[in-house]
# Entry
Amino acid sequence: MTLPNAITLARLLAVPATVWLVVRGWYDAALWLFLLAGLSDAVDGWLARRLGQVSRLGSLLDPVADKALLVSVFISLGVRDLLPAWLVILVVFRDALIVSGWLLGQMLMPSAQPVRPHWTSKLNTCVQLLFAAGVLAMLAWQFHVPALEAAAYAVVAATTTWSGGVYVVTWMRSMMRLEPGGEAP
# Structure
């Protein structure tokens, strides 16, 4: 196993610990573990490129680790009633929609080119990471700014909806290009 893949795997293994810390209400420790996991996301990709160790396993594990961490933190905060349910549902629904679309695409168009991550998805991931870190920081340091929280909810909802919509449109365009028999042109 390459070093970048080991770092990605460690991030994935940090998910249950982060969830446990959030559920227990140990927000300061959850924040630091979350920040460390977020930093590892930048480090593993950089190392993979720098060391010439970009791999198929890494390209599959990295987004899984990212989404597992983010979705788990959103759900954990929602379970503790620290995030509005509608926002948690929106984040989970978007990711479930993308995974379902990918699986369906693999079944219907196995020879089609894979859908590459769109820049709106990368922006959304960045916004969600900053948001989750911000929420954990506010909880850890016990400060609340209601106007800032409301604005942050709106930004996360907007980028989540926008990036999810881009995937739906991209997937629909791919489906419309299908030839009879399910083969891509």
In short: The helical segments are 3-24, 27-50, 56-79, 85-108, 119-140, 146-176. The two ends are 37 Å apart (CA to CA).
